[in-house]
Amino acid sequence: MSTEWSVTIDCADPAALARFWALALGYVEKPPPAGFGSWEEWFAHHDVPEDEWNDGAYLSDPDGAGPDLSFMKVPEPKTVKNRLHLDVRAGGGREVPWETRWPRVAGTVAKLEAAGGTVLREYALRGLPDHVMMADPEGHEFCVL
User: pTM value?
Assistant: First the structure.
């Protein structure tokens, strides 16, 4: 039996970073726990101080297949390269013909650049563009494949 898991990303602006990743992954804001009409209602019920209500943002896969994502506000900025990164598989994988896959990758890269992402490096395989390393608006590295 597997264990349920999620990914948490430390950041300065949880709501803004959650919007970027919702666009990148097709995720949606995670609904509040059962029995609560909003996250604010849940926070109040659990006596979370109101000045901490914007210290996190939460996303989930609308299909329920992928892990949840949490964005937690931290005081310190990112300072070094990630030791773990996400791969956004926009192209469908190398089993998809390059002529189909690469326009999907390039389109996703353009969309994420417009949303505040930065291209760090483009990688080639056998002389053709293959995947792109990017950074989100707070500098977390990820790849678009």
Answer: 0.91
